Amino acid sequence: MEKWLSDAEEKYNIDILFACEAGSRAWGTDDAESDYDIRFIFKHKDLKAYLALERAKEVIDANTPYDLHGWDIFKAFDLMQKSNPSIFEWAYSPFIYKDKDGFSNRLRSIAEKEFSRFKLFQHYTQLFSRNLGEAVKKEEFTIKKQKLLIHAVRACLISRQLLQQNNLNGDFLYTGLFCLKEEDEITLFYQSLANAKKRGGLIQEHLANQIAETLESEKEVLYIAGESMPKEKGKVSGLNEWLWELLKV
Fold first, then answer.
1. Of residues 113, 191, 106, 197, the one with CA closest to residue 157
2. How far apart are CA 210 and CA 75, in angstroms?
3. Which terminus in the chain has less CB density within 10 A, N or C?
4. Closest Cα partner for 98 from 109, 88, 110, 90?
5. 0.85 exceeded by pTM
6. Alpha carbons 98 and 112: distance in angstroms, whole number
7. Three-state DSSP state, 198
8. Tens digit of pLDDT for each residue in 66-93?
9. What are the residue boundaries of the structural domains of the chain, listed by start?
10. Which fold does the domain 2-115+234-247 belong to in CATH?
């Protein structure tokens, strides 16, 4: 992985400041067919790239040998101002492949202090609703529909956690969110789905239907609870200073 990142830096003439795992491997639901989903933040080595009439490349994508997606610092920082949920997840990934000069610590600090909990809650409840809607369509229960259910249950659990938290320490995303709680039916469902995926199998269709019914009820509960959540917009400060520091200007 380290060599591949170094090769990418040379190929695109960039410095990769931060790189992490963001797919099923990060969530602990990987199976034998799972690939590596690498997400990263970079800056162009040549400062002139930011001063030319032709805009500097903001996004880098590749699909061999890994599923790779990277954002330039200007794009990443602009999205941070909007409390971007992908960056929130990246910051707490359990698999960090590159972390230049403690980039992740600063990223987490900003997320915890200045991201909007309400905006993140909106994202995950919408993700929950959208995936659930696709998963319950009256068709044969397949691996694809099982993945949609996994995404729906995960988004549901994250939404619940955001409701309960007074701050935005995202450690719960990967290390504490899905701990088995016997009294919690939705967490048990998630464990069943995750275990089935990891062994390359399907849960029984009647269980999938039971999960869907429970999630429909939980969706309404979340929507009602979300109405009383403080609707702060989130205002991320100090990004210009960090940007100038990274560009050494």
1. 191
2. 41
3. C
4. 90
5. yes
6. 21
7. helix
8. 788 999 999 999 999 999 999 999 999 9
9. 2-115+234-247, 117-226
10. Beta Polymerase; domain 2 (3.30.460)
